[in-house]
Design brief:
It is a single chain. The chain has 408 residues and is an alpha/beta fold. The chain is built from twelve helices and 13 strands. The protein folds into four domains: 94 residues, Beta Barrel (OB fold (Dihydrolipoamide Acetyltransferase, E2P)); 155 residues, Rossmann fold (3-Layer(aba) Sandwich); 38 residues; 41 residues, no CATH class. A hairpin with a 2-residue loop joins β1 and β2. α4 packs parallel to α8 and α5 runs parallel beside α6. The protein is elongated and about 195 Å long. Heterooligomer composed of large and small subunits. It holds the Pfam family tRNA_anti_2.
Length: 408
Amino acid sequence: MGMESSPEAPQPVRAVLQAVGGWIGRLGRIWVEGQIADLNRRGQTVFITLRDPVANVSTRVVCPSRVVTATTPTPEPGARVVVHAKPDFYVARGTFSLAATEIRHVGLGELLARLEQLRKTLAAEGLFSDSRKRSLPFLPTVVGLVCGRDSAAERDVLENGRRRWPAVRFEVREVAVQGDRAVGEVLEALRELDDHPDTDVIILTRGGGSMEDLLPFSDETLVRAVSAARTPVVSAIGHEQDAPLLDHVADVRASTPTDAAKRVVPDVGEQFELIAQLRQRARRVITGGLERERAWLADLRSRPVLASPLHEIDRRTEQILGLRDRARRCVHTELARAESDLEHTRARLEALSPRTTLARGYAIVQRADGSVARSASEITPQERLRLRFAGDSLEVTAGTAHPESKDE
């Protein structure tokens, strides 16, 4: 329940601080993890500044010197420890501190287990997926470099980068690369370079070191910041065998700072050589194509139809004349055959014609109604008949019929 107060009835400072001390006192003992930033001994009392390993937050730890001497090895500034302490509020000065009763070092095995668990969590979220990784620009205009102050890693990257492409520019941010301030400074440098409009790629680098020295580059906050960066990030932390979590989330992992410079900056000599090879290859391809086309044209020109166009016209003329003569012969042959057939047909018709029979001395006897009399018995006496000869006809009157003897 909160303290009641008003402008007319305010609470005195002592009452407020005593209430705060009472609330803090009810928290009980707690285990706290952090990194020792400062350690001072004053008689039998030790005053420690315990800093959060990620955030820029620290608190004061007070303990008897026997608590420190009981810890093996003796804690020193920079050590990662776990403190069992009771929150305490000093009312007289209004200061907060932790009254420690036990200090333990964070073991390497425990750190590795935590890192492995964090790695699995981040991998499950897809932060290490290859599909998220971006390709590096071919020729970066500005390269952002985050490195230790006056470090060998910085010299390696700058010297190798400028040796490979003298025109490349570097935006260098020197930061703490180990200790309690490393994560905060690296994050700030990363954000600044990522927001820089000309930065094409960012290199995070430092030299080798122990497992504890490289812990800042496995920090979850830094890993997520690299994953969210808009600019491609190259990780060059430690040596080949070192593998902080930053290597998994970076777009490209370089084994050394020198390797990072080679991956980010192309070699001008190699590029000139490549251009020369490509030009020679293009020249060979074009020359070969022209030679093939020239040979094809020469082959076309050597063909008879192009070498002597009139010869082809003469040949075609001969073909046409030959076809015309053949057509004429065919027509004449067909006409002669048709004429012969017509003559044969005419001859057969004339042979079968009654006129031909009449021309041999025969006559046709026709009655008045035009019918042909085929027998004398069909004709009555005094019947008017017409005798048709080959060239003319004669009107006669029938007489008496006389039967013809078989001997006649």
